[in-house]
Specification:
single chain, alpha/beta, TIM Barrel, eight-stranded parallel sheet, two-stranded antiparallel ribbon, 14 strands, 38% helix, globular
Length: 307
């Protein structure tokens, strides 16, 4: 059986510090979280930057560079910075990490959607930092914009920097967007898709949704693609198991779920990586190493990045 690439999404821009004391947001804490996740068996870490003073999402290039270079200096894990950022950022801010730092791989959001977090305000009433409540409430009117003009710009920038797009698919229509970009020559096969399930505004996190996405991807793209899955909250592990059995890869991490199991907060993304590896080994699979992930995904190599 092929190796399974496990990605750890370290902090994201969805959860806020008041939701869990274990969410890393200081620069050194994010670096250490990457090292722990790598030691646990993750081949890839997905990185967002945060303001080290209050944990708010940030597009600051210096913070990104400090995080990426700090991880690179201490382990050989593949580093995938976000170009999704948060709803407070402009498209130029979101993309700046690619043009400046030229990473091996970066996220590429394949279409627009409502991206709503505001329902969590029913659960959380007290906040450590002033920005948190307004940030969550503001998503009630947020449209995560990724129109074709911006997709063309993102594609060209990633081609110029030889950065592999990790293409985030939030709903089935975005697979069609990818097929169109391949047809136009903006994306080249084999593409690497990541199905993002369970975001309010996107496709639900169900087995039926995941199997439909895989089937439509094969119909539109043939067999010339790789795919991973990440799912929000309690769906993180069930969707990952189904995806591995279907031949795909798996993302876990505190960006997607702050829990290890029902009622138990994860103290680190590394705990979720360890759990995922226990599961896939029971199923007869083995996790890929960073070198194996780099070969599978045809990455340019860490010697060609700018950090």
């Amino acid at each position: 059986m092929p190796k399974v690439i496990l990605t750890a999404a370290l902090t994201g821009a969805i959860h806020t510090p008041s939701m869990t004391p274990y969410l890393p947001f200081k620069t050194e804490d994010i670096i250490q979280e990457a090292i722990r996740s790598h030691s646990a068996g993750a081949a890839v870490v997905h990185v967002h930057a945060r303001n080290p003073e209050d944990g708010s999402p940030s597009s600051n290039g210096d913070i990104f560079k400090d995080i990426l270079s700090g991880i690179k200096a201490k382990c050989d894990v593949v580093i995938t910075p976000t170009t999704g950022g948060s709803y407070t950022m402009t498209p130029e801010e979101r993309l700046s990490v690619v043009s400046a730092l030229k990473p091996e791989m970066a996220t590429f959001n394949a279409g627009s959607l409502n991206f709503a977090l505001y329902p969590v305000l029913e659960k959380y009433k007290d906040f450590k930092f002033d920005w948190e409540e307004d940030y969550l409430r503001g998503t009630e009117s947020f449209i995560f914009s990724n129109h074709f003009k911006s997709l063309h710009i993102y594609s060209r920038t990633m081609e110029e920097t030889h950065t592999r797009p990790e293409i985030e698919i939030y709903d089935v229509g975005q697979v069609n967007n990818v097929a169109q970009l391949v047809h136009e020559g903006y994306l080249k096969k084999p593409v690497y898709l990541q199905y993002v399930l369970g975001i309010l505004g996107g496709i639900p996190a169900t087995a039926e949704s995941l199997l439909y996405l895989i089937r439509e991807s094969k119909r539109l793209l043939g067999d010339d693609f790789y795919w991973s899955v990440c799912a929000a909250g309690r769906f993180q592990f069930p969707m990952g198991v189904i995806n591995v059995l279907e031949g795909g890869f798996w993302r876990v991490g505190l960006e997607d779920s702050i829990y290890l199991e029902k009622g138990v907060l994860a103290k680190s993304s590394a705990e979720q990586v360890e759990k995922a590896i226990r599961i896939i080994r029971e199923l007869g699979y083995e996790p890929a190493t960073p070198d194996e992930a780099m070969e599978i995904l045809q990455l340019k190599g860490v010697d060609k990045v700018n950090y």
